[in-house]
Design a protein that fits this description.
Length: 200
């Protein structure tokens, strides 16, 4: 439920990204803390609030992944094993790294997959949250300073979007809607292909 809501918020943020980038870049990051949103917002938002909001937003996503792993264990990723064998091998490698390095890996790579493994391993929740906060704070700081170094180009982009705000937003909404429709169509095709055929 939590991850579904956060995914929906991220899609909404992506769809409204041009409008939010011009009108309220910090709100954009609060809704969707994707790295490129953080980098773009760095041109107009002070470092402390931007890094804090991005870190908290991503930490909430990580907590959702932790809960999924805690409830369902490794089986939460079983569908990947069935549908994407190459990706499954990579995830298995990450899982072995987590078994070896534990929360140290979460600090270096605070991504939802590693958070899920932490939940599956029943890692102490408070230690997990601290490691996740440290990891996200570090990487959001890196992204901020990369974005800040490109502020001159971001300002030009923001000015262009501001002059074409309605058109830019409508394009993003259309792209997100088309992507969602294509994803649903692809899932249905795969489900139909994997469904057992009836008697001949």
């Amino acid at each position: 439920m939590l991850l579904g809501g956060l995914t929906g918020a991220s899609l909404l943020g992506t769809a409204l990204a041009p409008y939010l980038l011009v009108q309220s870049p910090l709100l954009l990051v609060a809704i969707s803390a994707a790295a490129h949103h953080v980098a773009l917002a760095a041109a107009s938002v002070e470092p402390l609030p931007l890094i804090a909001v991005a870190t908290l937003r991503r930490t909430v996503t990580g907590i959702g992944a932790y809960g999924l792993g805690f409830l369902y264990g490794r089986a939460a990723l079983g569908w990947i094993d069935e549908r994407y064998p190459r990706l499954a091998r990579f995830i298995a490698w990450v899982e072995r790294l987590f078994a070896r390095w534990g929360l140290g890996l979460l600090v270096l790579a605070p991504v939802p997959t590693v958070a899920l493994f932490a939940g599956a391993a029943r890692t102490r929740f408070m230690l997990f949250v601290v490691a996740l906060l440290v990891g996200h704070a570090f990487w959001n700081s890196v992204v901020f300073y990369v974005g800040d170094s490109m502020a001159i180009w971001t300002d030009l982009l923001t000015s262009f979007i501001g002059e074409n705000l309605l058109e830019s937003t409508l394009v993003c909404v259309a792209v997100v809607a088309l992507h969602g429709a294509f994803s649903r169509f692809t899932r249905r095709r795969r489900a139909a292909a994997s469904a057992p055929s009836g008697p001949v």
